[in-house]
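INFO batch 0412 | record 1 of 1 | parsing
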Amino acid sequence: MPQMSRQDPLIEHHTVDYVPLAERHGKARDLFTLWFSTNIAPLPIVTGAMVAQVFHLNLLWGLLAIALGHLLGGIVIALASAQGPRMGIPQMVQSRGQFGRYGALLIVFFAALIYIGFFISNIVLAGKSIVGIVPSVPVPASILIGALSATAIGVIGYRFIHTLNRIGTWVMGSALLAGFVYIFAHDLPADFLTRGGFNAAGWLATVSLGVIWQISFSPYTSDYSRYLPADIGITRPFIATYLGATLGTILSFAFGLVAALATPEGTEAMVAVKQATGALGPILMVLFLLNIISHNALNLYGAVLSIITSIQTFASRWTPSIKVRVVLSGVILAGCCLVALGASADFIAQFIGLILALLLVLVPWASINLIDFYLIKRGVYDIASIFQADGGVYGRFNLHAIVAYFIGIIVQLPFANTSLYVGPWANLVEGADLSWLVGLAVTCPLYYCLATRGQAQKVRAVELGYSD
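INFO prediction complete | emitting tokens
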């Protein structure tokens, strides 16, 4: 397949349209560096510290739960990512092939809301990080610096995002390993290995957290693999994404756990990182800030593509240009900055709670997406139909997918354990949100049965038509 030349523009000119085969470029290993570097960040480190501070697991049981959760959840993100080279379109556009042209709108709306929520949370976090490093910089200015930096990366687009994460893999990976070495090379508390222990609730909660963490990336993974050559296959993108996403998050979660155990009990997570890493602490804080900004570009990029997808649903003949992506990025930037500047002290915690609650709508979507791609259509979609005004062979609505989707949400509600809603059976395992497991267990077989039955009915209808 042809490679992009050095004369090709740096700024991405595609939006939600199909990437022609002649413009495909890159290697599967780019997916490893993207998802590895993205997950070496403060949020997964803080979450890893919760394993000791909230779930009260010791080092051994904590590491086992962290690894198992991410290794299981990583299967979902890797399967979603492997669809990109075959389809050549963003993940949310692809949903039209499963839900119908208009049926996919609800999924796209939820995805856009999640992206914007994470973007706002991260620019607040970036602003606080800048103030922590340079106290003389006012908070509003810090927030704007973080937001503008992430927006610039998101506007430039696909190639620049991959380039930054190739560099970030070496820089952030080396910094994290240096942090581990520093911690273990110095005196550790007497209870470092014995603090906490095993409890079933905490262990299952940690495993669930790892699974949910990985699933949360699935709505936009193929956005970053759709430019790869179509003949690259399924296996290589799957392996590269799986190893990058799982290794990056396992290391970050483990680092947070180790830092929490290496400092006095009750120490706030990022303070624990600073204390445990000594002279390396300030360097890590700067690198984490840069990573927050780089990662936040993915949230903006996904939000823009989702909103464009929604608009383009009602304007099938419209092919959005780069100017549309730039203008829309600016509008989102302005709105998010206004929200961030007026945010309360506990804004991040509240917004993350909302986003985690919205994951209830992602689990059935991921189930339908993977079952449809790998078991029903086996990777063969009519791309032209996906962009037709009437949905082509996929129609305006696919009732089988829509019914399975809403049932998948409903069955999760009794088991949901979020800051916004707690179901009547949420505490079957105290502290663990197992709603995702129920969602997967119900949605996958339900959609498969509905979809295959629908195909059988179409075949019989055709046969009867011929017999007449």
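INFO post-check: The longest helix spans residues 281-313.
INFO record closed
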